[in-house]
Amino acid sequence: MTVPADTAPPTDDTTYDLAIRTAGLRMRYGQRDVLDGLDLEVRRGELFALLGPNGAGKSTTIEILEGYRRRSAGTVEVLGLDPERDVPSWRARIGIVLQSSRDHGRWQVGEMLDHFARHYADPFDAPELMERVGLAAQAHQPLSTLSGGQRRRLDVAMGIIGRPDLVFLDEPTTGFDPEARRDFHELIAELRDERGMTIVLTTHDMTEAQTLADRIGILQTGRLTAVGTLGELAAAASARSEVRWTDRDGVARRRLTEDPSRTVWELHQHFDGPIPGIEVRRPTLEDTYLGMVGTDLPEAADTAVTAARTEAS
C-alpha cells in the first residue's frame, strides 16, 4: 500500500517490474506548476486508474507519458525509455485511446481497422475486434455516418488493434450503452489477464474504475496524494461502512462503522439468531474519492490551470 504516495526511489528489481516511472515530474505554464514534482509508478501488467478533479493535471501527465508533451523538469521512463526520445519501435508498443478524434470520414469502419492493423506485427483480427467493441454491424459503414457512441468504440478499437504492451485509456467508454460498456470491460480485463498488457485508465466513472482497477491514484493540484487498492484508499480516508437492519420494534436502524463485521456479530448476539433486514453497504470508490478531494477542489484546480496556461501564452 502507498497512502500517501511513496516518493522513495525504487531498487533495480523494482524498476524492472515497472512499466511507468516518474520522479519529480514538473510541468510549468508561465509561473505556475501544473505538475508539481509528480512521483508515479505503474507496475507491468496492472490496470492503474488515475483519478482527480478537473484541472488536477491528469491530461498533462498522460500527454507527457505518451511523448506528446515536453516536461519542464523531472525524470520519466515508459517501458524503459524516455518518451521524449520517440523511438519508433517504442511507440509501436504503446496504444492510445483519446477522448475523441476525427479523421477519414469516407473510410469504412472495417477498412480503417484493416489499414491500422498493417502497421503492427501481431494485430488483432479486425472482424473479431469489431465484434468485441460492438461494431460488427457497422463494418461497411462510412465513419462520417457513425453515431457518437459508435465513433467512440472505433477510437478504442484503433487504440488496441496492435496488441500494445501499454495502453492509455482516456475516458474510454464515454457514449457507450450499458451492454457495450460491459463488453468493453470484459475485453480490457482479458487484455490484462491473458495478454499481460499494462493499462492506464483516466475516467470520471467511479464504477468503471472500481470495477477494473488493480490500484488507483488520486491526483490533486499536480501531485499524487494517494495510491492504493480501493480498500487501502478507503482505510486512509476513514471511509466507514453502513450497516442496516430492522429492530424488534419494526423500526429500520442504521449504523456507520469502520468494522462492519463486528457490528453484524453484535447484532447476531442481540437477536440470538437471524438479523431481520440485515444489509451491509461498504464504502464505494466515489465515497472514498469525495472524502479525499472534498467538494471545492474541482473548480479551484480548474481555475488555477486555466490561469496558468493563459499566463504562459
Give the terminus-to-terminus CA distance.
40 Å
Oligomer: single chain
Give the overall shape.
globular
Q: What is the name of the CATH topology of the largest domain?
A: Rossmann fold
Q: Can you name the CATH architecture of the largest domain? A: 3-Layer(aba) Sandwich
The count of strands amounts to 12
Q: Strand fraction band? A: 15-25%
Number of helices in the DSSP assignment = 12
Taking all Cα atoms into account, the compactness measure Rg is 22 Å
Average pLDDT, all residues? 82
Helical content stands at: 25-40%
Overall number of structural domains: 3
CATH class of the largest domain: Alpha Beta
Helix-strand category: alpha/beta
Major β-sheet annotation: 6 strands, mixed
CATH superfamily of the largest domain: P-loop containing nucleotide triphosphate hydrolases
Widest sheet: strand ordering: 5-6-7-3-8-9
Quickly list its features.
24% strand, disordered C terminus, 12 helices, 12 strands, Rossmann fold, 313 residues, alpha/beta
Please tell me about this protein's structure:
It contains twelve helices and twelve strands. It is an alpha/beta fold and 313 residues long. The protein has three domains: 152 residues, P-loop containing nucleotide triphosphate hydrolases (Rossmann fold, 3-Layer(aba) Sandwich); 64 residues, no CATH class; 43 residues. The strands form three sheets. The protein has a six-stranded mixed beta sheet, with helices on both faces. Strand 6, helix 7 and strand 7 form a beta-alpha-beta unit. The longest helix is centred in the middle third of the chain and has 18 residues. The two termini are 40 Å apart. The C terminus is likely disordered.
